[in-house]
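Researcher: Batch entry, complex prediction.
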Amino acid sequence: MAIQKPTLPKGTRDFGPLDLQKRKSIIKNIEDVFKKYGFMPLETPAMENLSTLEGKYGEEGDKLLYRILNSGNFLQSYKDSTDYTNAIDNIEGKDIVKYIAEKGLRYDLTVPFARYVVMNRSQLVFPFKRYQIQPVWRADRPQKGRYREFWQCDADIVGSESLINELDLISIYHDVFTQLKINYELRVNNRKILAGIAEVVKSIDYITTIAVAIDKLDKIGEEGVRKELAESAFTESELNTLFEIIKSKGNNQFILENLKDKLKTSETGTKGVEELSFLLQNIENCNRATNNAVNLKLDFSLARGLSYYTGCIFEVTALDSSLMSSIGGGGRYDNLTENFGLPNVSGVGISFGLDRIYDVMEELNLFSASIRTTQSKILCCFFDEKSQEYCLPAVTKLRAVGIAAEIYPDVNRKKAIVKQLDYANALQIPFAAIAGENEINQNVFTLKNLLTGEQNTLKLDDIIQMLKE
Amino acid sequence: MAIQKPTLPKGTRDFGPLDLQKRKSIIKNIEDVFKKYGFMPLETPAMENLSTLEGKYGEEGDKLLYRILNSGNFLQSYKDSTDYTNAIDNIEGKDIVKYIAEKGLRYDLTVPFARYVVMNRSQLVFPFKRYQIQPVWRADRPQKGRYREFWQCDADIVGSESLINELDLISIYHDVFTQLKINYELRVNNRKILAGIAEVVKSIDYITTIAVAIDKLDKIGEEGVRKELAESAFTESELNTLFEIIKSKGNNQFILENLKDKLKTSETGTKGVEELSFLLQNIENCNRATNNAVNLKLDFSLARGLSYYTGCIFEVTALDSSLMSSIGGGGRYDNLTENFGLPNVSGVGISFGLDRIYDVMEELNLFSASIRTTQSKILCCFFDEKSQEYCLPAVTKLRAVGIAAEIYPDVNRKKAIVKQLDYANALQIPFAAIAGENEINQNVFTLKNLLTGEQNTLKLDDIIQMLKE
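Model: Structure tokens for the complex:
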């Protein structure tokens, strides 16, 4: 076989020791919080039937699905089909794809979760609170912060319409980002408020038009949004009413009172205001009880692919970072499992974008300095066969009491110790235990602190005692 | 969209809360031991370029690779190729696969590791000790204990020829299986001994013939192996010599002395005996130092796809299980990174089969009874809006001090408490805190132990105190 220079597929990454330990530290944080709130873990296969995935993510999503070629002579089932045309010139990929690929890679964690709930509904206890932390794959154009393999960390509750679930999810965001020391902003909106706005401004039929337009407020500004909506026959006066509502300023209480008044003619809108009021009031009560500072920012322009959500909508951004895109989001939906034959199951969920959180923490230098490439606390160094024989049981003893320890495996008799200490320094192993002729005779080790250079002669038991502290 | 009954791709599984917690308990055990021995984590992408994967697992392996269909109009690059034939009738899948699929799913953890080492060699500190715990995918026929998505847990050291690495790996097997309470047998052989046997019995040219035949000893018995080798022109006397060596009985010391004598005319064989002697002697020394009982079973018929290994060969089976296949294995190899342009890097590694270990532990009932579907310790129950308002800050306080707590989100005024206690019982949540009119007035909760039925009236702080203990 010819020698090849290996590469990685575009948009994918290896995670080496240090990167991975940092990622794991984020995951552990999120997972511990999920558990503290009573969420239970779920993992689904990387491969799903395409019948499960297709049609769930819109036309654009279908294009971004990774499809897996059937095994064996995959062309045969096309040849056997009624669509069969013998000349390849007359065929395009999309004409034969359904015959040659039955499976695809997981595109998000929500659809597999819905499939799981439907398949296991008779065994599950509802409300069912699950979390799921797994990679997903999208054939998107890779760019800074956007990968073809990336991780999602989701928590959802299905089978309950209570706003207490929204409260829990908001509190989860707070706990996670506070522990990670990320200064965040959690923006909240409600589909019912968007509906109310549409009703009051023009008519409920315009909810999508309005939502799509105002969702771009950040990017194209008020002028841009006005221009776009003017093209959809919005009058100057309608647009003024709209911006009066969504640009309302003040504290949350004031903004909400104002909104309540503006939407009083809309039943749906009033319901939306009540839902947000419930959240704000209870957050305040709980903050008071625990000296927490959970905080929401009302943002009536937030839509997040409206068609999906039916109630609250969340989005989180990191405040001090140059990364503008969201590091989390979610909301309430009522039709998640309907596609799979289980209608009327209400759910609400949030997602953490692991890769973006990682990027933010790297940028802001938020990872604990104690995260090292290796956990090893001590390297046992030896010169020759005799000290090797002396060191091997020692390293076994260290490990037996739970201390991460290594013995350098190879001995170059000339520069043995230099090489071994180089290894320890490169991996930031804090201590080296050295055993030469003298040490062996006295049944001790020379313990070198590689940070300070300090050396002491110690018995193994004393080294164990010291490292365990 | 028509309603569909969702299914999972054949050979794949969902892991629900209880299964997954059990699997995570195994992984945590393995990972903690890996770390204790100085191994560092690595994760590689699910997708690799097919050029990285193909040709590395033999012809059979190439067939079992999952290939990912290129995005867009994937047929075009075939149409543009010199292999192009317009009539589909004249084409089979294998003729066009290289034009329509560039990427494949990870088939094992070893080849991606080799690729990683080659791509990152200038940054890595050698010897490089990495562990990797990830799923792999094979388009194999699914059967009991064999899945199309399954997990491997690998630890490898590259860049060191020292047998101390083999000692570490043997000790890792011991630590993991002892902690998991799996009664295991670790069989060990050495490629050099197999070479020596071939030399002594007939000639080194027959090493593969012999290895392939005696590897089947378990399945086809001595008679079967004799018959197979007789067909390769082995004489009765040669076969007698062979079986005298591989069937040698007694303690390890005796067997090895015997082997040493038998292989004395083979330089390679003698080297193999020395290597095993080194392992046995040092294991004995370390056992003595720590009261461990690490044990090897010499098995000169063990080959494990010989072509791969160049030194020690390991295989682990669970002794009390009906599962006959191995739950772990590995060995030393010298040519792992050669395919990717980096020759002369010696490595040694082991793998744990997570799915099989899980099956063994389920069969033998070895999982800790403390593994539950949820971590929640307490459910706060309420009757109406007033008690909800009383309970919400309480559950926030419980979580703030790190106690996994839930509040049941929905209230059916008629049978509120029954439904909530049903939920707690179904999820084995051990305590329920109930707050009615009286409790609220006295600023207490009725705490119900759901295991014993015992009830007490307690202040929240006392509940916290009790649950933290």
